[in-house]
Amino acid sequence: MNQNLADVLQVTALVVALVLVHRPLGDYMAAVFTSRRHLRAERWIYRAIGADPDAGMRWTAYLRAVLAFSFVGVLFLYAFQRVQHLLPLSLGFDAPPPDRAFNTAVSFVTNTNWQSYAGEAAMGHLVQAGGLAVQNFLSAAVGLAVAIALVRGLARFRTGDLGNFWTDLVRGTVRVLLPGAALAAVLLVALGAVQNFAGPQDVRTLTGATQSIPGGPVASQEAIKQLGTNGGGFFNANSAHPFENPDGLSNLLALFLMLAIPFSLPRTFGRLVGSTRQGTAVVAAMGAIWLAGVVAVTLVEHQAPGSASQLAGGSMEGKEQRLGESASALFAVSTTMTSTGAVNAAHDSFQGLSGGVLIFGMVVGELAPGGVGAGLYGMLVMAVIAVFVSGLLVGRTPEYLGKKLGPREVKLAACAILVTPTLVLTGTATALALPDGEAAMTNAGPHGFSEVLYAYASAAGNNGSAFAGLGADTPFFNTTLGIAMLLGRFLPIVFVLALAGSLARQRRVPETAGTLRTHKPLFAGMLVASTVLVAGLTFFPALSLGPLAEGLAT
User: Helix, strand or coil for residue 521?
Assistant: First the structure.
């Protein structure tokens, strides 16, 4: 089959699958978060944690619950790692040092899943399944809950009630993530992914050498790492490892899993605000940015300069032969634009301009379509900015879904957007200025700069992937990247929930002839332009010093 045709068919199959699931999954999630009925298993959980599932929360109470739950998660996961050597199924591994344990605990609780260690050589089965995989569910459910709270703020009037965090958390886990991950795990096992609790097996290779083959509960962790847009991996090679990602079909399934919920949540948003066309405008903007990134990286990787790349038909360094350039490019763009962070190729080996697109996908806020929940609330914050800018252009008071966007709302939206660039640029500058940061760089020049910029973009954006050429398993990077993950996750949540509370207290503004039609293609275009321009104006100087300089020099 012609390679170009195969590339088009692969993307087309993925898009068709996402279109088919968009409406039913979006409607199902809307029903989950509006249902008045509690399942029996859910009632048991509420009694165990002492929560009243029917009590409404103001934004401040909702925020306190989010922060307290996440803080306890960090403490538990840190302690769990530090006593690993005393636990069953530890496989004889020692406890990680304090700085790495802190980084890992923060990473998985913030839905980042940055890993400064090789999973199969550092973590036992109990920590992997009982600690890391559990946080894969819970961190995704937290993001989903915050998104639903913001949607309620847009949908409700003259109330401070944003719903109940504990109810949203439990329902997102029990009714959305658990069933989806269970089904995905079964499919992955059927496709050849490993699922057992066996220790390393020593086998003799064809050349007579001895090789240790690790086992473990891989498929179950792989399923939720993709469905919850978590990232990370059971193995150091991540989704390039055949035990996690056996072939092209499992690769396509992984892509579908990481994109399904983020691309379906705009439908949920539309149902909850009473206008599905509003959700269509949001998902159209998300899809346009994602597709543009896929096309750009695929073209650059296929047309890579150099005789070796031309003879191979593309840039194959750092890529799996069984997957090829196109599947690697599609996976790379999807994982950096969804905050997933899983990788099926070495991003460090991508061409300079491709690396720039991947970094741009993270610094733009990973809104296209973004992580589970985080993508939707990030795009809705950007919609507030787009409406405000549109109002300035036509000289009218900005309004969105019957809500006036005054100084308070716009300031909160602006603060949420400014968190990522502040953390990324400050962290990168600090690392490059200090000896600890410079010593970890294995490359000089623009590529070395890109490695550091990518690391802080990945951490602050809660992505978790890396330019693997950076030696980041040091106390300096484990600590500073951990802080960037914490602030990059929870500072935007503070501003988003404050925005939701402010919007929920407003009265309905009647629609007039001058009201901006936010369900039209024109607004979807404004949303794309606002998203690209905000990141472009902020990060263009940094991108010029790194991936753009490298790409233009080749």
Answer: helix
Q: What gap in Å lies between CA 504 and CA 508, rounded to an integer? A: 10
* pLDDT for the residue numbered 308: 47
Alpha carbons within 13 A on the beta-carbon side of 203: 8
Does residue 312 carry a pLDDT above 60?
no
Average pLDDT over the chain reads 90
Pairing state between β 210-213 and 399-400: unpaired
pLDDT at 6 over 60: yes
Cα–Cα distance between 339 and 100 in angstroms, integer?
Answer: 21
Kindly state the DSSP code that residue 241 receives in the 8-state scheme: S
422 CB-contact burial (10 Å; exposed 0-12 / middle 13-18 / buried 19+)? middle
Strands 201-204 and 403-404: unpaired
Paired strand residues for 182:
none
DSSP string, 316-382: -TTB-TTTHHHHHHHHHHHHHHTT----SB-GGGS-HHHHHHHHHHHHTTS-SS-STTHHHHHHHHH
Could you tell me the pTM of the whole model? Answer: 0.94
In three-state form (DSSP H/G/I as H, E/B as E, the rest C), the secondary structure along 44-109 is: HHHHHHCCCCCCCCCHHHHHHHHHHHHHHHHHHHHHHHHCHHHCCCCCCCCCCCHHHHHHHHHHHH
CA atoms of 412 and 496, how far apart (whole Å): 7
Amino acid found at 403: K
- CA angle (112 as vertex; 107, 116 as ends), nearest 5: 55
In the prediction, which pLDDT does 111 show? 93
Alpha-carbon gap, residue 281 to 522, rounded angstroms: 9
**Cβ neighbour number for residue 484 with a 10 Å cutoff:** 27
Q: Helical H runs in 505-518? A: none
